[in-house]
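tokens incoming
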């Protein structure tokens, strides 16, 4: 399977929303509890940000998911740190695409002088935890019962990788 990454544009909003809505309504991977509007999605996904880009993940020419880097905190001293986010359509999970996507985001981060990547993951999301660990990230934080979705209290873990 050939995996490519294309810069995400506003024309990709419908595809991105379809993927994200699945994770909102069917999983605890995101703490959104109701589908977001296109306006809200434009605020979440950095479409026009050179430092924090977003990409469409293509598998054999078909949209398999999306990924992006986003600002960790809005203070200048954090400019060397970003969060890496990956969402794949369920049918593309477990095929090594997530691994390729995280590696791609690492390279994109280094091009932008980002030296630390974080993955913020729901504590029950074992697939994402395994993915980030396989990519060399280490658990650096664990927040207990900080969210509630589907009548379940949820932890959040943060995985970190120093890219230097």
């Amino acid at each position: 399977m050939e995996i490519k990454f294309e810069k995400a544009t506003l024309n990709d909003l419908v595809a991105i929303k379809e993927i994200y809505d699945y994770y909102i309504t069917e999983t605890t991977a995101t703490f959104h509890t109701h589908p977001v509007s296109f306006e809200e999605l434009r605020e979440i996904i950095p479409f026009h940000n050179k430092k924090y880009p977003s990409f469409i993940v293509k598998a054999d020419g078909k949209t398999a998911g999306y990924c992006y880097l986003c600002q960790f905190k809005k203070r200048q001293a954090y400019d060397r740190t970003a969060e890496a986010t990956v969402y794949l359509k369920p049918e593309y999970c477990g095929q090594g695409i997530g691994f390729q996507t995280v590696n791609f985001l690492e390279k994109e981060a280094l091009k932008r002088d980002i030296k630390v990547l974080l993955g913020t993951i729901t504590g029950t999301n074992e697939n994402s935890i395994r993915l980030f660990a396989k990519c060399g990230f280490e658990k650096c934080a664990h927040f207990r019962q900080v969210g509630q979705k589907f009548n379940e209290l949820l932890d959040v873990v943060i995985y970190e990788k120093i890219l230097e």
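note: The longest helix spans residues 97-111.
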